[in-house]
Amino acid sequence: MSESESDSEVFDAAAATELVKKLRRSFTTGTTRSYEWRVSQLESLLKLSLEHEEDLCNALHSDLSKPVLESIVHEIALLKGSCKLALKELRRWMAPEKVKSSITVFPSSAAIVPEPFGVVLIISAWNYPFLLSLDPVVGAIAAGNAVVLKPSEISPRTSSLMAKLLEKYLDTSAVKVVEGAVPETNALLEQKWDKIFYTGNGRVGRIVMAAAAKHLTPVVLELGGKSPVVVDSDINLQVASRRIIAGKWGCNNGQACIAPDYIITTKEFAPKLVECMRQELENFYGKNPLETKDLSRIVNANHFDRLTRLLDDDKISGKIVHGGEKDKSKLQIAPTLLLDVPRDSLIMTEEIFGPLLPILTVDKVEDSFDIVNSGTKPLAAYLFTNNKKLKERFVACISAGGVAINETALHLTISTLPFGGVGESGMGAYHGKFSFDAFSHKKAVLYRSFAGDAPMRYPPYTKGKLRI
Ligand code: NAD
After folding, report:
1. Pocket residues for ligand 1 (CB within 6 Å)?
2. Which of 162, 332, 356, 379 is the right S-S partner for 401, CB 3.0 to 4.6 Å?
3. Which helix (H) or strand (E) holds 202?
């Protein structure tokens, strides 16, 4: 049972205060700091993922019609990988890092000692509800914190399953799930936390940051944005088309934070790109994609209506070159390509987060840089080219949370790379060791003996002491 169900009918500010007190008491005992506790919790999370794969796939299917392969590969396997990596590396991550000291304090030594922040809050989003909830939990536990997780109410089956499973598998004196929506989140946000880790949209990101500011609580904000794909003409067109499709529709039907949001290519190359993408879309999803089982559905009617509004914008009338069919009863919209949409159309002014993919055209591929840099900084930016100079310029000149060349989305799977945004796509990062770091304070420690006590630092401050 989740905290909201087990402890009280309504999870209000008083219940939240009680919960934080309880967790703070646990944290203060020092249990969560021990290597053994961290390992036992990580092993249990791994066990949970292994023993409940089918339940998780069913919950994800119920919330999003997520195809089983996507649930296993994009959510459960990535979580397992994070647990395994943390278990393998934990001793090394926890070890103090010796650093050079200074002659001014000779003899001495210095070290950076990671310590847990304390009691942390993780608020997660609905689109990858299992991974986005538990991947930060792996980092928080590895770093030795007590944790409250607030999953998204928009994916209720996965939320309640996680609440049930975490209660069963993890130490409930230090790890709690609070289910609920805005009132419950607000009750939690009123509390003093030692760190808040939020995944979701920037509007709520601002609410989270304002609440955190009251207590000077540090935050990680994992947000979104419009992630561009720049497509040059000297490419393997089929591979590029397939990889764009995989990163867009193959990732929760475009409802992914790093899904390609729009393409920029040259006027000359656009027809070839459209033709190839059409062909590959048909190869992957058939002639009637509203019937396929290989696409997640739109999560709910609100999001379906939001996407419909983007398509109904007069400014893009006649711009659909592929797809556009929709069925509200199934909450499904076919993979849709739009060509030459105006930059002031609705679809180009907000994050799409769905199966629509507009294509902008430019005279020269280099002109795409100004378009990308004129918007807010995206979470991801993609480039398809064989041109070495263009790759170098893209990496140097495009500011984004992450960049992938001749690929989409998969940079997220590389645990040695930090995952996070910049500017309006977020702040802070996680994955691999970066998850441990996100939930650790790096404490500066100086060790001295009683030797080498220099009289010149003490009063009286005579002129002679200035001559150093
Ligand atoms: P969401 O609606 O599930 O909201 C996220 C969390 O915020 C939920 O737990 C929800 O309960 C809480 N919330 C919602 N409104 C609130 C309010 N008014 N006050 C307090 N809390 C509130 O998810 P979403 O925001 O629709 O998620 C989609 C967005 O998240 C997109 O912008 C996407 O790009 C971004 N995203 C980013 C990442 C990343 O890792 N950077 C991952 C997934 C999604």
Report:
1. 123-127, 132, 150, 152-154, 181-182, 185-186, 199-201, 204, 207, 222-224, 257, 351, 353, 379, 421, 426
2. 379
3. helix 202-214
